[in-house]
Write a structure and sequence with these properties.
- With 345 residues, the protein is of the alpha+beta class.
- The protein has two domains: 100 residues, Nucleic acid-binding proteins (OB fold (Dihydrolipoamide Acetyltransferase, E2P)); 193 residues.
- It has eleven helices and seven strands.
- The strands form two sheets. A five-stranded antiparallel β-sheet has the order 3-2-1-4-5. A two-stranded antiparallel ribbon has the order 6-7.
- Strand 4 and strand 5 form a beta hairpin.
- Helix 7 crosses helix 11 and helix 10 runs parallel beside helix 11.
- It is elongated, with a radius of gyration of 23 Å.
Length: 345
């Protein structure tokens, strides 16, 4: 009998589309709750989270997993082994599964990520470093370098959201790097844009999420912090820009045009207005081309990520049509494939 493979939740979700399979997966217990069915039968509901995805499992009284759940507190790092399949409208679910606690060394490996996720994280962080190094304005260049130096490790693990898009450890870095690539490309199309200001705005636009939804060094959950709850990431981002700005040697650049104060105010406007509308949490709406473009690039990347997640996670309600995603206000339809190149091409 071949050994049972270890998969991430995303790999398991993809591989089980063709039928039931036996597999192992590792993750952290994000939530574990004892409930009762409609007929009064008790069961455990366990939400498992790994580097980029989450899965909800249920353990009934007549299974070994039920007893294991009794002794497994929230936050535990575990390995699940069982049979997994895509079950219609219920999505991915596990059957006949059992659970064990990971050793400390296995838990460290879990939080370090797979070689693929580690390589992707390094590429995305290098993208931000390269963009910062390319800036011509010495004030913005120094500001970005200071931010990445002081908060780079926290940036690597922060999430971009709790639910809708990039809602996982490292999600903020992926979101910001994708936005940076898009914004850089658009600066080549619209040459009148202030590239230095726009790219700095991309780096800082969600910087407040480092305190609003950042997992601990060894964890996948996103604990709530009083600072994030009371101020929100936009206010924290404005505060962060001002705090770092005060550390810059501004006297060295007092003869530069535009003046440093003007540069600071324009950057703060990008951070404050990036949600686009007052009803979506921005205290001010975009009033410059760079602020408008930042908002649109942010929205594009978030929405495309939600489509990608829907194709992976949402069950099909008809061939090629997936269950409605509230944030998209649509039932995502499978995209049209690109035409295959001909032999002559």
């Amino acid at each position: 009998m071949p050994p049972i493979s270890l998969r991430t939740i995303s790999q398991l979700r993809q591989d089980s589309r063709t039928g039931s399979l036996s597999s192992k997966l590792r993750g952290q217990v994000d939530e574990i709750t004892k409930k009762e069915s409609a007929n009064g039968k008790p069961f455990w509901e366990l939400k498992l989270r790994d580097f980029a995805d989450s899965l909800t499992l249920r353990a009934w009284t007549d299974t070994a997993a039920f007893d294991a759940c009794e002794e497994t507190p929230r936050g535990s790092c575990v390995e699940i082994e069982g049979d997994f399949l895509i079950n219609g409208a219920f999505g991915l679910e596990g059957r006949r599964w059992r659970m064990r606690l990971l050793t400390p060394e296995e838990a460290r490996e879990l939080f370090a990520g797979t070689p693929e996720t580690t390589a992707a994280t390094d590429r995305d962080f290098s993208c931000l470093q390269d963009a910062a190094a390319s800036l011509a304005d010495p004030r913005l260049k120094a500001l970005c370098a200071l931010f990445l130096d002081e908060y780079g490790e926290r940036f690597r693990r922060a999430a971009a959201a709790r639910f809708n898009h990039h809602a996982h450890r490292g999600g903020l870095l992926r979101h910001t790097a994708q936005m940076m690539r898009s914004a850089s490309a658009l600066c080549g199309v619209y040459s009148h844009l202030n590239r230095d200001l726009l790219l700095t705005g991309v780096l800082f636009h969600d910087s407040g999420k480092l305190w609003e939804m950042c997992p601990p060094e060894f964890g996948f959950e996103m604990p709530r912090e009083i600072r994030g709850e009371l101020l929100g990431h936009i206010s924290i981002g404005v505060e962060l820009v001002n705090a770092l700005w005060r550390k810059l040697p501004l006297e060295d650049w007092k003869s530069l045009v535009p003046a440093s104060e003007e540069v600071r105010l324009h950057l703060l406007h990008l951070v404050a207005s990036h949600h686009g509308e007052l009803q979506f949490g921005s205290p001010i709406e975009p009033k410059t081309p760079e602020a408008a473009l930042l908002h649109f690039v942010d929205n594009i990347d978030a929405r495309l990520e939600m489509f990608a997640a829907a194709y992976e996670k949402q069950p099909e309600i008809a061939p090629g049509i997936h269950e409605r995603v509230r944030a998209l206000n649509a039932s995502p339809v499978r995209p049209l494939q690109s035409i295959a190149p001909t032999a002559q091409e």
